[in-house]
Each structure stands twice: as structure tokens, then as C-alpha cells.
Amino acid sequence: MDTRLYVIPGSHPSMAARLMLEAKGVPYKRTDLMPVVSKAVLRGLRFPRNTVPAIKIDGRRIQGTGEIARELDRLRPEPALLPADPAQRAAVEEAERFGDEELQPPIRAILWWALRKDKEPLRSFSEGAKLGIPIGLALKTAAPLVAASAHFNEATDENTQRSLAAMSAMLQRIDDWIAAGVLGGEQPNVADFQIAPSLRLAMTLDDLRPAIESRPAGELAMRIVPDYPGWVPAILPPAWLQPLRSGCSQAGGRIAGTQPG
Ligand SMILES: N[C@@H](CCC(=O)N[C@@H](CS)C(=O)NCC(=O)O)C(=O)O
Predict the structure, then answer these.
(1) Which end of the chain has a smaller Cβ tally under 10 Å, C or N?
(2) Which ranges in 6-84 belong to alpha helices (H)?
(3) Is 61 helix (H, G, I), strand (E, B) or coil?
(4) 146, 139 contact by CB (below 8 A)
(5) How far apart are CA 249 and CA 257, in angstroms?
(6) CA-proximal residue: ligand 1, atom 11 (nearest)
(7) 156 alpha carbon to ligand 1 midpoint, in Å?
(8) Cα distance between residue 167 and residue 156, in whole Å
(9) CB 190 within 8 A of CB 20
(10) 163 contacts: CB under 8 Å, gap ≥ 6
(11) Ligand 1: distance of its center to the CA of 43 in Å?
(12) Ligand 1 geometric centre to CA of 3 (Å)
């Protein structure tokens, strides 16, 4: 299989695709792209959409973590990313959908809000990446890319605050799935690979890590993704972190032990 994976350094779904390829034992080459520039590159390569992860396998173009997972299961059935049992599969696919649609975006918003305030941590996310230009130069010219990424990812004050307020309920939902055996099995499934990189990306922020690392969700993230490049020193306004630290939901009520809708 001639396989090339296109990623953005630090991107959580890109990490999910890397982990799934590795779990399947599929050798691949990786191309690291700069955010925003990636959109034009992917279009130039005739991918149907403009986001990473994107993969070329034997000349075919597949994009998005969900499609990549299903293509890998088709090409190499073992170890299976999706359970064969219909009820188990439905539960895993619901957790996968949550990871893809509900968990990924707020973590992006929080990260880009922080990077817009201070671009220096970008250096740490590029560890091990080959961007085609020296990282020092990339950082010097990063301001427009960071501004555009903050814009695309709705990293406004309001949305970032809303994202932080939603985190506690999302972490509880993940803990509940672990307790129910949907996540965290001996052999990681597609939802483990979808959710753990988002948690690990969140844990690169000193502001968020303490609220995640000691709970089952944090332990799962560390097991599935022991190494994740990037480090963002504390930068978020403490008042915005209050709901996360006290375990309160968006509306401000206690959510511990409840299943959010
Ligand atoms: N939900 C999609 C997310 C794809 C996505 O939005 N990827 C981001 C990176 S995390 C991207 O390519 N953004 C374009 C950019 O940053 O310029 C998936 O899981 O594949």
C-alpha cells in the first residue's frame, strides 16, 4: 500500500489518523502542512475538502477521521476499529460522532484563542514536524495565519468562554462511556482514537490539564496517546476556568454524575 498522510502539526484529528494507521500496521509517509496554507495545498492535490487529516492510499483520496477509519477497516480488517456487534457498534459510533462533532471544535477554539494571545507555544507544537521552512521563520510570519485560524475556529472571547463552560459536562460524558465499556477497552476502537487526541491536545494547556489528567478521561488519553507535542503555559482568564474547576455545566449547575443531552 502506497500511503501518504497529510496533517497539521498539533491537529487532534490528524493525530487520530496517525494512531489508526499505526494500530493497523500500515506504513505511511507524512506531509506536515501549515494551518490555513493546508487548505490551498489540499485543494491543489484534488482532495474534495480542505481539512486534515487527508490520506492518499494507492492514488485514492480519503479525508476525515471517520472516512479514514472505515477505509482502514475495509483494507485491513484486523484489529477492527468498529465493533461487529450491532449494539456495540452503535454505542461506539455515537461516542465517535460526539468526539468528531462536539469535542473537537471547542478545543480548537480554546487553543487558537490562547495562541492568538501568545504565538510562542506554536514552536512546541511543531516538534518533530517538517514544515519546509525553519520554525523561527514560521513563527515570525505566523501572525496572519494565527489570526485566520482564530477566525475560522470561532476563537472569540464569547465562544471560548462557552467552550470552557461546556468542558466539564463533556469530560463527564467521556468518563461515563469509559465506565460503560464503550471507551477504554483493551483494544482501542475508533471512538478511543477519535476522543483521546482531543483530550491530549486540551492537556497541552496548563490551564486545562489539572481538570482532566486525574480522571478516567485523562488516564485514557495518556494511555492512547502517551506523547503529544505542544505546551501552552497558563493564559486563560481565571474567571473563564471557574466552571471547569468547579465541575459546573454551561448553565452553572452541578453536572457531576449526570448524563448531558
Ligand atoms: N471533524 C474533522 C475535522 C477536520 C478539521 O477541521 N481539521 C482541521 C485541523 S484540526 C483543519 O484542517 N483545519 C484547517 C486549518 O487549520 O487551516 C475530522 O475529524 O476529520
Answers:
(1) C
(2) 12-24, 37-44, 65-75
(3) strand
(4) no
(5) 11
(6) 51
(7) 18
(8) 17
(9) yes
(10) 105, 106, 107, 109, 110
(11) 14
(12) 20
Give the predicted TM-score (pTM) of the model.
0.94
57 bridge partner residues? 3, 60
Cα–Cα dist 135/141, whole Å: 10
Q: Radius of gyration (Cα) for the chain, nearest Å?
A: 18
Contact residues of ligand 1, CB 6 A cut-off: 8, 11-13, 35-36, 38-39, 51-53, 64-65, 100, 104, 149
Could you tell me which of 204, 13, 32 has the C-alpha nearest to residue 128? 32
C-alpha cell at 135: 520554525
- 32-85 pLDDT, tens digit per residue, is 999 999 999 999 999 999 999 999 999 999 999 999 999 999 999 999 999 999
* Ligand 1 atom closest to 100 (CA): 1
Q: Which grid coordinates belong to 72? A: 482502514
The pLDDT tens digits for 132-154 are 888 888 888 899 999 999 999 99
Q: Which residue has the cell 489528567?
A: 213
pLDDT digits (tens, 9 = 90+) for 104-123: 999 999 999 999 999 999 99
Find the 151 Cα to ligand 1 centroid distance in Å. 14
Per-residue model confidence (pLDDT) at position 248: 64
Q: What is the mean pLDDT of residues 206-221?
A: 97
Could you identify the atom of ligand 1 that is nearest to the CA of residue 36? Answer: 17
